[in-house]
Structure formats: structure tokens, C-alpha cells
Write a structure and sequence with these properties.
Chain A has about 800 residues and is an alpha+beta fold. Helices cover about 50% and strands about 20% of the residues of chain A. Chain A is built from 29 helices and 22 strands. In chain A, the strands form 5 sheets. A 6-stranded mixed beta sheet of chain A has the order 14-18-19-17-16-15. In chain A, strands 6-8-9-11-10 form a 5-stranded mixed beta sheet, covered by helices on one side. About 10% of the residues of chain A have low confidence. By secondary structure, chain B is α/β, with parallel strands linked by helices. Chain B is built from 5 helices and 5 strands; from the N terminus they run E-H-E-H-E-H-E-H-E-H. In chain B, strands 2-1-3-4-5 form a 5-stranded parallel beta sheet, with helices on both faces. The radius of gyration of chain B is 13 Å and the shape is globular. The model of chain B has no long low-confidence stretch (mean pLDDT about 90). The chains are: A alpha+beta (about 800), B alpha/beta (about 130). At the A-B interface, helix 11 and helix 12 of A face helix 3, helix 4 and helix 5 of B.
Amino acid sequence: MTTAFSPLLLQFMQESRDGLQEIATRLLALERQPADPELMESLFRVVHTLKGNCGLFEFPEMFRVLHAAEDLMSAVRDGQVAYDREMADLLLEAMDFVAHQFDDIELAGQPDPAQAVSCAELVARLRQRCGMQLAEGGGQDGQQATRHAAEEAARSYMTEALARVPPSLRMAWADATRAGETLLWVQYTPEPECFFKGEDPLRLAVQMPGVLWRRVLPGSAWPAVGELDAYRANLVFQAVATADRSVLDEHFRYVPGQFWITDLPTAAIDVKDQTRTNDALMIVQTQNDALWSLEGSPWVPGHLKAAVTTIANCMRAIGRLEVLPALEACAEQALAQSSVAPVVAWIERHAQVQAMAEVSPNADLQEDIPAAEITAPVAAAAATAAAAVTTVTADADPPVNFGRRAEDSNGARVLKVEQEKVDRLMNLIGEMVVARNGLPYLASRAENQYGERELGRDIRAQHAVINRIVEEMQDAIMQVRMMPVSFVFQRFPRLVRDIARRLGKEVQLQLEGETTEADKNVIEALADPLVHLVRNALDHGMEMPEERRAAGKPATGKLIMSARQEADCVVIEIADDGRGIDPAVIRGKAYARGLVDEATLERMSDREAVNLVFLPGFSTAEAVTDLSGRGVGMDAVRTAIERLHGSVHLESQAGQGTRLQLSLPLSMAVTNVMIVQSGDVQYGLPMEAVVETVRVPAADVHRIKQHNAAVLRGRIVPLLELNSQLGLDTPQRCNEHDEWATLILRVHGQYLGLVIDDFREVVEVILKPLSGVLAGLTAYAGSALLGDGSVLMVLNPKELLK
Amino acid sequence: MKHILIVDDAATVRLYERAIFEDAGYIVREASNGLEALESALAACAEGQHPFDLYVVDVNMPQMDGYSFLRTLRQHDIPQAPAIMVSTEAQECDRRKAFEAGANLYIVKPARPVPLLRNVKLMLGETQ
């Protein structure tokens, strides 16, 4: 395979990754509500779809793992295997394996061949899990139990099918068997996904040797036309054959487990016996009427016993001894509950023969089928069968609903677009914003330079129109880039579960406000810091269950992750009810590591002390565990958040828990900057850092030690000159009233005055980070293009005023 | 050897049914009304006796009718055998009444020998 992906593969990978995520979510949900059949069903569906899609490509390992996982889930769904944590672990591991394969495919164009070993091992464990539990549950070998169930189903099919064979034919067969000839009953039920495996069920059925009679019928009732999935086989082939059994086994050798061959007992085909069987089943069904009319009366037990004896005798009379144990169990249950329901249910399951032919919505179709019944020599048989089957497929033809089934497409209609395309669109709109800003300049040039006032006014009018459209476009593209926080949140249930289990802690995760939206870049950049914070909370914050109990708290700790929108910020909170942070310990650590001096420590409030964890080089973990303490401290988290123009606040109450608050801008695409003049150059300053603009009279500037400062609103604010901060010799200029133009900035929670020459307007710009050799200039947050085509350097106050 | 109790107030009917069942090799006993039948049934369940394997019961009888007989029988804690109710009424409400009383099969008179015997054999669990 080449590294250039076909569009089909690309789509498969995209969809499958979503599928994997969905599977993980549902597995975890299932752990909380193991008895929810709907959840199980939907989970099964997703795995099933994934496996089906996977079959389209040449990824045998992935397919085998998914197949084994699907089988296990199917066993769980059918109640044969109980769902528990270990199984969830195993299934999650299987999904991780698949995800890993996707990574390999993306990187190398094909799965790593070395994976075959771990695949085999994983499949073996999945299979073992399936078999082991079946054995435990059924008290016998698991495979045998499934086989037994399948055979019983096939047997009931046989009885029903033979009732449709003309009596004359059956009599002839009965004579033949009495004369010692062996007739075989063959039932072939192709797997629903057989088409994806390159199997051709029809061909296989038509080419079957030694056929005396055959027919084809739907495996289950055909769904409504709109929901029909033409890629799923829903057929059952039945045949009576004279061929040698080994020949038939050989014929079906590629579809193991999908066919069932048995000797045709004389009793099953003898017409007289057939009437007997029907009569017996009639009597059994009559018990149903009898019991229903009885519910609640005082002689229920007596009547139940009589009815059960009647049913048992009838079944015994027609040789269906295998159903008796189950019947007895039902009877005991019914007597214990003094309710007829279990027995009624049993009857409905086992005495369906008459009902099936009557109720089937495709009765007509089945009536047509005798055309497919073949009594002629085998050669002619093939042709007739083919013709008959064409009738069937013709009936199924029009309702082709390509692609996914109705129940798969849950949720809103979405269009998946590569991010590059959206980014390109956004860049174009950004350039449009800049180009728009050029119009006012053009207008003033027309007025002032060329004296064309009319033209100037027209340009301004046109500018207003374009302005409106551009703003709307900008807004629209922002909306496209908005993503729900759930995109990062959804990985946490799994993460928290895994970490908690590894640490032996009990933690319940609560997610709130997952639908809160923010820009894709913000959301994506959040993932790593959040993982780190959650790990910290679980590792350091959360106590062991015994410790929690001793402290009078519930053994299960609570971790709440919430997101909400506040003004133009998205606020994310991570709160735990663990042991909290002891300020004294933090103080000690900070001092021991030489991060703060004694005097500062004494002045510090507990709240400030707790926030010392954000200092570089601070780590409270006594021992480095494999979870946190990998040298990525809280300072890394703070740096990451600040790079997103956000901020972090930490609050902690010893013994009560810790609350971390991340505040991030909703969108980073457009930045508001204030343009300032200093020297002969214009600079930009992000508005989020600007608290206010003041003109400080020169007389109010006080010299404290080497620094200038002024008292503003009762607070001493240090004044720094921009030129000297940038290392320029030019002195700062004040205006004619001897006032210094000063920007009050808030940096790291402290107020600073930045003295400049003069203020200019506030503009919206697309901030582009500096690249190449300029990337090292941390004093600048980036550059932006202004409407007149000039470049504005935007300062980064946090770096500038260090 | 299976035991059958025929409950009918008409001697002719008893004779007719007895002939059918005895020809098929069953041991047959008779009762001419519900009360008598109940006594026989309970006595047969006593120790050392062979309880009945099947009851063939008429509806209208003096002293105790077929419904009351079955209803009472089903309230006793004894081995419960299947019961066929044979009646002249072919209406659905009669059928339901029979089932409510505790019958397991409802046959409209006159009961023809072949189907009657076939149903009896099935309800007794005979394989042939």
C-alpha cells in the first residue's frame, strides 16, 4: 500500500476514530449501568459497524480483534456473559489496539507487522473470556451451549419447513429412509457481513450437490423499505439432500459455523407424524389460552401443574425431549411466583410452529417460494433455484439505502471538513479585514490629496457596506471553528477511571457544561494542561479510600470538571474533594528550594502561598510516581494556559479539596490591540492586559529608590518607560501640559504603569506569531498587518515587564 | 398402564368412551357426577393407589357439574393430571369457562373416536 491514502480509506479512518471514541464512552457508561440493554445494543452496533467497515480493507489483525470483541459483546448482549470491570478493561484494550493500528496506518501507510503477535494474544484473551464465562454460566462448554441453541433454532426451522413440502414428496422420502437411505437436512444461514468477506451465499447454495428440495427465505422479517440494508445478508437456505455428509461438509468448509447438517428422521417427514406433531403443538398452545384466563384465581398452582404435565406429555409424545428441562425450570419459577407468566412465555418460545406461517409479513413471498423447491435432477435444480432467488432479490432491490443504516446516524447532520480548509478560509477573511481597513485611508486620500470629496464620501459608504459583510463573515467563520468542550472532556472518564484504578482510589468523575463552546485552537491546546491537572488531582489531591473514611468523607472521591462561558471567556474548573493543599507545606518547600525569601514568605497570605505551586521548579510530590511528577510542573501548565492568553487560579482548603480555575478567551483568531506611539514607532498592546489609560502629571511622579512610581486610586503603581524597556536611548516625551501618557497594565496580578509618548486607536487585528529568527524575540506577542499596509509589532507585556 | 377417569351422567356416553379407551389398552373408571368423580380422584391419590393420568369430563351433571369438579380438583394439593372437557356447546364463552375451571383441552360432542384417542394419547405422552 502506498502512503497516499485513497479517499475511501481516509473517510474510513476518520469515521472509525469517532467510532472508537464512541465505543470508549459507551463502555464506561455501561460500567455504571451494566443492565441497560439499549446502551449495550448501541455499543454493539458501533463495534459492528466498525468491524464491517474494517472488512473493506486489508487489515487482518484489526479485523480479527474487532471480530473477537464483537463476539464477546454479543455474548454479553444475549445475557450469556456478565459484564464486569475486567471485561471493560479487555474491551478498552482491544479498542486501544485498533487505535494504535490507525496510528501506524497514518504514519507508515500500513499496520506494523510486529503487531500480529499482540493481536493473536489479544484475540485469544477475548475468546477465552467469552468461552470461560459461558462455561461458568451454562455449567458446560461454552461453544457447546451456543451450538446447542443454534441447533434448536434450526430444528424448529426444519419442522416448519417440512410442513411446506408436498405430502406426496414427503411420503416418498419417508419410504426411502425406511428403505435405509440417508436423507440430510441442510440449513445454511450466511453471516450478515458475508458479502464483505467475498463470500457468495447464493452460489454456494445453488452449487450444493445432491439436492432433492430446497428453498430460500428471509432470516428475519424484511425491514421497512427505507431501512433495508442491501449489504447485509438476511437469507436462510434450506435443503434436503442425498449427498454424502462429508461431501457437504467439504462444500461448506469456508463458512464454518454458518451451516447445519443433520439426518432427516423418518418421523419428521412422515405425513402421519406431521399431523401428530401439529396436534401436539396445538394442545400445547391451548394451554396458553387456558393459563391466561386464569391469572389471579386461587387454583393457579393446581392448574399450572396440570398444564405443565399436559405440555410435557405432548412434547414427550412427539419426541421433543430436549425441551423438558427448560420447561421444568419455568414451571418451578411459575409456582414460586404463583404466576402463569413464565410458562406462558415458554409456550410462546417453543410452540410457534403454527403461528409462524400465519404471522409472517412475507407470507406471500413464502408462498411463492415453492417455485424454488426442486425435485428434479440436480442439474436442472440449479437453474430453477437461481430463478426463484431472483424473485426474492427483485423484491428486495428498490429500497437500497446506501451507506449507513437509519439507526446509525444518530445526532445532528454534520459536514466533516479538514481543518486546513477552515484555516485557509479564516486567513482569507483575515486578509479581507485588513484590506477593508484600507478603504478609509483611500477615502481620506481622495479627499485631502485629490480634493475629491464626493468620491471620498462614496468610498466611505462602500466601506460601511463591506464592513458589515466582513464582520458577519468573521463571525461565521468563528462559529465554524467553535467546538464544544466535550471534545477534550470526553477522554477524561476513561483517564480518571484508569488512573484511579492504578492508584487504588475510588473516584467519581462529574462533567458539567460539556456543550460550552470555544475556539478549536483553545480547546485543543487545553487537552494537555487538563490531563496534567487531573493527574495531579488524583495523585496528590485524592486520598486513599481508608484515609477518606477516617476523615469522615465518603470513600468515593468526587472530581468535578466543569466549563461555562463568562463574558468572552470560557472558564474551566477542576474541583476535587481531596485533602487539599497545606499552605505550610508549600511555604516550606518553596523556601527549601530557594524560590522565595523569608521576608516575602511572611508577608504572604495562605492563598498566595498555595499559588506558589505555579513557580518554576516546584513539585510537591515526595516521590516521583509514574503518573505525575515527570518534571512537568504546575508552571508548565500555567505557561501553556498563558500562551492561550488565559489565566489560572488555584484555591484550596486543607482537608476540603482543591479548586483550579482556568480562564481562557473564547477565540484567539482576532485580538483587540491598542496602538501606542513611542519614539517614532507605533506598537500594539493586547487590550486584555490594559486596565486603563491615564495621563499622569509630571509632578505626581515620585522617585522611589531607582524607580518612578505614582499613586493611582490609592495604590502605588510603578512606572516603567517603554523605550528603556526596549533598550532604546530615546527619552519618553510628555504632552504640552507636562503629562505622561501611561497605560495601566495588569501583569501576573500586579498593576504596572507603562509610560509611552501617546495613545492611538484600538483596532482588531489578526495576530500572527513571529516566525523564523524573530521567533526568539519574546518581548513581542506577534505582528499584525494594518489597513494602510504597515506592520504593527504587538508587545507581550508579560515578557516585556519581567 | 395409564388410568383414565370418565365423568359423565349419561351411561351411553360412558360406555362409548370406555370402549374407545379400553381398546387402546387403558384402564378406565367411571363416575356419574362431579361429586362422585372428586371422591374417586382423591381416593386414587391416597397411598398405594394409582392416581388418574387423565380426566375426561362432561359439563352438565346433577349434584356437581364439570366446572365445579375441575375447580375443586385443581385446588387440592395432589398430582394434577390433564383434563379434557367434552361439551355439547361450541361457543367461545363455554370454551373459556372450561379453561377457567381448569380444563386442558376442550372437545365438542360428539367426540369422534380417532381424534379423541389421538389427543388422549398425546396428553398422556405416548410416542406412538
